[in-house]
Every structure is written in C-alpha cells, then in structure tokens.
Amino acid sequence: MKKLQTVSHYSDEELNAIMYSQTEIRAFWDWQIIYSVQTNPEKKAEEIAGILGVKKSKVLRVIELYNKKGMAWRTYGQWGGRRENRCHLSIEEEAALLKSIESDALSGKVLTYRQIKKKVENRVGKTVSDDYIWDLFSRHNWKKKAPRQSHPKADKQAQEAYKKTSGRSWHPNR
Question: Rounded to whole angstroms, how far apart are CA atoms 26 and 55?
C-alpha cells in the first residue's frame, strides 16, 4: 500500500497554528488530518484514519484536495444553509412579503396556506413547492394556528346523550 505524502505548502509549526486557529469543527478535523499525515510520513491511510476516528476515504480525499489546490484548498463556505442559486426570494424579500400579509392575519381574516402560496407564486413568477412555503413559515417564525376541536370545558357525557337521543334529519344537497 502506498504511503501518504503531503506537498509542503506549510511547515509543521504553521500547520499546527492553522489547525488550532480554526473556529469550525469540520475545518479543525481537516487540518488535523493534514497535520497528522505531514508529521507522520511513514503512516498509512488506514492507520491515520484509525487514530483520528475517521474513514480512510476521508483521509485520502482531504490529502488529495490539499495537494491539488494548495494553500487555499479549504476556501469553501460553511456547510448547509441557504444556497442563493436555489432560492426563489432573498430573506429580506420573504420578510417584506410576509409583512404585507401580516396585517390580514392579525385583523382576524382567515389566511390559508394556499392563499399565501398564491401570493408567493405571483411574486416569484413560477410555481413553488409546498415545502418551500412551510420552510418560509419556519424561517420567519410563523406558526400554524387552528381552533380547538372541542371546548376544554365541554361536557362529554351531555354530548354523548345528545347523540343518542337526537333525531336524524336529512337535507338535500343544493
């Protein structure tokens, strides 16, 4: 099996300083892999992976990227979050849209999910998924409010008695 080697972009002391200056845990782990490979050139990928508690493929991928891209190999941003190329509206545009709808919601008018979805689709100019609307609500701390199915002080026995004694009536559909 081939032993790992890193291209010496940084000295051991510089790598150690970079590793401990990281604020993200994923970045720290990546720099730890590079530091371990550079300071232990006789170790194999399996050994380093076992010591650091990662998979062998992770070690190989990190070293390959570091060797290929050089000093700026880890320039990508944070993991997760919104990706602007997939977003229909920016956060500010979403907030403005919901602000315009908020007055209707607070005045007691019933707003349904479908009404808000239509407004968003008119603003965007294309159809949006149901998940986008629910995520929009979640991002802006909107909650689903619905009336209770029954009053908390309702008399259950009286309701059951009424069901048993009430007459049946049929009404035609109009």
Answer: 14
**Rounded CA separation 77/166 (Å):** 67
Per-residue pLDDT tens for 29-38?
Answer: 999 999 999 9
What are the residue ranges spanned by the domains of the chain? 12-72, 84-139
Q: Which residue shows structure tokens 């080697």? A: 5
DSSP code at position 80: S
CA angle, residues 145, 151, 153, in degrees to nearest 5? 140
Distance CA 85, CA 125 (A): 16
Cα gap 36→16, rounded to integer Å: 10
Please state the pTM of the whole predicted model.
Answer: 0.47
Cβ atoms of residues 59 and 4 within 8 Å: yes
161 token code pair: 């008695």
Residue count of the chain, please give it. Answer: 174
Angular region, 111: left φ>0, alpha ψ -120 to 50, beta rest: beta
3-state helix, strand, coil in the chain (%, to 5): 55, 0, 45
